[in-house]
Amino acid sequence: MQTAKLKRTSLYVSGASPINMIQAAFYNEDCLVYDLEDSVPASEKDAARLLVYNTVRYHRPANKYVIIRVNGIYSEYIDEDLEAAVRANPDAIRIPKVEYKEEVIRICQRITEIETAAGMEVGKIEVWCNIESYLGLINAYDIATADPRVVALALGAEDFTASMKSHRTKEGLEIFYARNALLTACRHAGVEAIDAVFSDINDVEGLKEDTALTRNLGFDGKTCVHPRQIDVVNSFFTPSQKEIKYALRVLQAVEEGKLQKKGAVTLDGSMIDKPMELRARTTLAQAEAAGINVGEELL
Amino acid sequence: MVGTLESSDIQIGLSPNPGGGLDIQLQSVVKAQFGDAIVATITEVLESFGIKDATVNAVDRGALEWIIRARMQAVCCYATGTQFEWKGEDK
Amino acid sequence: MINAVGRELPEKIGSYVVKPYAGPSQKIEAEQTVCSRRKPSKRAVAETKLMPDLKAAIQACGLRDGMTISFHHSFREGDHIVGQVLSTIKELGIRGLRFAPSAVVNIKNPSIVDFVKDGTIDRIQASGIRGELGDAVVEGLELAEPVILRPHGARPHAIETGELSIDVAFIGASAADDFGNCTGQVGPNACGSLGYSFIDATCAEKVVVITDNLVPYPCVPISISQMYVDYVVKVDQIGDSAKIGAGAARRTKNPRDLLIAQRAADVMAASRLFKDGYSFQTGAGAISIACTDFLAEHTEKAGIQASYALGGMTANIVEMHKKGLVRTLLCSQSFDAVAARAIVDSPNIIEIDNSMYANMFNKSCALDKLNFGVLGALEIDVDFNINILTGSNGEMMSGIGGGPDVADGADISIVTLPIVRGRIPSVVNKVFTCCTPGSSVAVVVTEAGIALNPKHKSYEMLKEDLQKAGIKTVSIEDLLETAYSLTGVPKPIETTDKITCIVEYRDGTVIDVIRQIKRD
How far apart are CA C158 and CA C152, in angstroms? Predict the structure, then answer.
């Protein structure tokens, strides 16, 4: 049975800091992103790459969706980063500042080459693309559908607003369009949409308002810059009783359909497709993560 | 020199020791319980790089085994002026 | 012989007859009456208690070789009294004393080790000997007898049974009058509660109050009454106020500690005992202080009020009181300047005798009613035994404090600690030094998971409550595996046969001993 992996929260941890990397494994984030890019100074790139490689390959945290963010596609580090990141065998590689589908195709080819050379299962490593410029946003749908490895797009608001010549505010009206445009592309492409960070780590109320918007717009998760943000963000992805009941009905209909060997299953007159089923499973996984007992048998 | 003096890290310097074999100088906050294990990790990485003569100066702040391994790999790459041999990791 | 936590003990250690720890503490009806060395005596009206200096006071007390002297540790690292008194005693050529403060804090100038080396002190009893002295002791510092370490609740008991018989008690006070009425609550070097000294005042043969702030008679408030005091001495400085008030509650920014604190508070809030009128003790470590804040949030959200907070007080517990989240603070110690000052300001913040706080052989103690106790630890093992004394190299890291008392007294005792500190695992197979028996520990909270003790009296209740609240638990074995998978299995600390410290439990039995560390 296909299981839903939660992506409510993605915590960045610098590949230059052993203590942060070790501790990050114990917070409640769903996705742990080991960073080789912005948080690592140029002088530390090689050392950080080895730290991240050894950590992910040999001491991968249990029960986390593990991601490595590599350096930019045109940086001098990308080749070495990919050699290390692929062999570390994370759940996903996160590529910063993606603007064209050709970039994704090229990186995905390279991943395949390394997987093959290393004797690994080909195609298992997923790819997240960070959308951090207006160009990336315009091409979001093409990027999301460039390769089957792509499972999520994540909005990077700081660089995006810089490319737009907008000013970053707490309220975030300047990224309102980008959020919706990214979501639209993701929904159409059938990949997950991850919202931008809320940068002020001391402003809990601000984080709550921002995350409420994240959730209401329809995002599947949000990137976090500090461990203290995780529980707050996770709590916004706790489904309501109504959502849980609906998800249970969807899965019940699917189960019954299977028993009766029906090709197409309907609920309340609408057909249940694969994404709908997956969303229902995600809802229940979110409920379970929030400590709500929804009955084990359907999970 | 790689690594820092932060908690859970190790700072390692590697210098030539022509014909002198391996000389490992270790300062560690966990020397009583893990000193031998740390020296073993350091030696193993040196061997994997084929380094037979070197002086290692390591100041350990309670780094875990694979952190020490990664720091050693990095310092060996710097000292030998090479990139890490990723293919060596494939089984 | 082997005691109930599996520790190998000799029958006798020098003249000390070992009563092995035999399992969960039981109250025993004692035959004897309470021992006190205090004598009924009338002082001539004209005679003054005020002595010109320490030397005169010590001589007036008749202090001789081999006697026992005591102090409180409420001035913490800012204490100047112990050093001044010991230096004066040394000048007088008095030797071979038994040094029995409530705890030895890490004071360096002068050094307690030097007073041992020069023979002024040859025996030590305290709740802890943290710092230079402790390290020297485990390395084999020459003493006439092993150091006896007792939890806070056991010290008054040892005094009342006569096991610890005090000849002269030196009590530092931040304000005192010429007849010896004194307090720690006011004055430039206020330390707050003098709770540790009440038992010394009532049971020692001679009592000397030392202050740098002589006030007109009568001193207000009166923490320790003139009826117990023989002499008063004014010195220039009893302490360094900056260090006395240090440890002031600053909320930690370490996300790992905050996570542990949050989870510990969540455990409390999930319990059915968390209701209007609940009681708690959280303490003063970084995790404990943060835990108090999270507990305050839960209390506010639930719209309830705790009946009392117990033990050592911090600024943020005082803050809870001011917000109406806890009705009464029973304060045996004040951990910071805010808590020290608060006793004077509020009628519902009460200075209490340390014996009332923790001594199980009283007709009752305040711990008997406690719902939640939050404890720190250096190590915990698969039997939930706690080590709060010795570090990974065998060095003396801390004192026992009131932990064993709190664990035993509270309905739900919660141990908070990180799963590893650097490469040092905090969850281990077997703790190096056992201070608190695992049977009294209900739950351990780490960043890597929460483990309930299946052998604790509250297990079924807590298990049900946590399940209901959706709080997941793991087994202590899971935590051990996590810790060792990170650090590797540590090499055991090697010791010689020489016993350097005897670790007593709250009921006066021996729970463990610390042997001399073998060094290369």
Answer: 10
DSSP reduced 3-state for A37: coil
**So what's the pLDDT on residue C246?**
67
Q: Which of A89, A25, A99 is nearest to A53 (CA)?
A: A89
Predicted-complex ipTM score? 0.96
How many Å apart are CA C182 and CA C210, to the nearest integer? 9
DSSP states along A68-90: EEPPPTTSTTHHHHHHHHHHH--
Using a CB–CB cutoff of 8 Å, tell me whether A198 touches chain C.
no
CATH architecture of A9-236: Alpha-Beta Barrel (3.20)
| Strand spans (E) along A39-122 | 65-69, 92-95
SS3 C131: coil
Does residue B4 sit within a domain? Answer: no
In chain C, where are the structural domains located?
A: 48-244, 255-493
For residues A231 and A218, give the distance between their C-alpha atoms in angstroms, rounded to a whole number. 19
Can you list the positions of beta strands (E) in C240-320?
279-281, 306-313
The tens digit of pLDDT for each residue in B41-69 reads 999 999 999 999 999 999 999 999 999 99
Phi, psi of C142 (to 5 degrees): -75, 115
Per-residue pLDDT tens over the stretch C321-332: 999 999 999 999
User: Which residues does chain C have within 8 Å of residue A290's beta carbon, measured at their own beta carbons?
Assistant: 470
DSSP state of A239: P
Give the model confidence (pLDDT) of C122-156 as tens digits: 999 999 998 899 999 999 999 999 999 999 999 99
CA dihedral C490, C494, C495, C501 (to 10 degrees): -10
Query: Is the four-CA dihedral A285, A287, A291, A293 of positive or negative sign?
Result: negative
In contact, C126 and C164? CB cutoff 8 Å:
no
Q: Which residues pair with A130 in a beta bridge?
A: A154
* B contact residues 23-52, partner C, Cβ 8 Å cutoff: 29-34, 36-37
DSSP code per residue over A173-195: GGGHHHHHHHHHHHHHHT-EEEE
d(CA C136, CA C116): 10
Name the residue facing C392 among B30, B63, B64 (closest C-beta): B30
Q: What is the DSSP string of C416-432?
A: E--SEETTEESEESS-S
Dig out the tokens for A2 from the structure: 């296909």
C-alpha gyration radius of chain C: 22
C-alpha count within 13 angstroms, C-beta hemisphere, residue C85:
29
Domains held by chain B: number: 1
- Interchain contact C301–A (C-beta under 8 A): no
Q: Which chain C residues have a beta carbon less than 8 Å from that of A227?
A: 255-256, 259
CATH of C48-244, one of 3.90.550.10, 3.30.390.10, 3.40.1080.10, 1.10.10.10: 3.40.1080.10
Contact C256 A26 (CB under 8 A): yes
From the CA of A294, how many Å to the nearest CA of chain C? 11
Q: How confident is the model at residue C247 (pLDDT cuts 50, 70, 90)?
A: low
List the chains bordering chain C where 3 or more Cβ pairs fall under 8 Å: A, B
**Residues B13-43 pLDDT 10s:** 999 999 999 999 999 999 989 999 999 999 9
- Under an 8 A CB cutoff, do C422 and B34 touch? no
Alpha carbon of C477: minimum distance to chain B alpha carbons (Å): 21
Find where tokens 């409550």 sit.
Answer: C465
pLDDT tier for residue C47 given thresholds of 50, 70 and 90:
confident
Q: Closest-CA residue in chain B for A88?
A: B89
The Cα of B80 is separated from the nearest Cα of chain C by a number of Å equal to: 29
- Interface test with chain B among C423, C431, C489, C494, by most B beta carbons within 10 Å: C423
Tokens representing C111 are 């050094």
**Is residue A87 a contact partner of residue A124, using CB atoms and an 8 Å limit?**
no
First to last CA, chain C: 29
Place of tokens 């790089």: B49
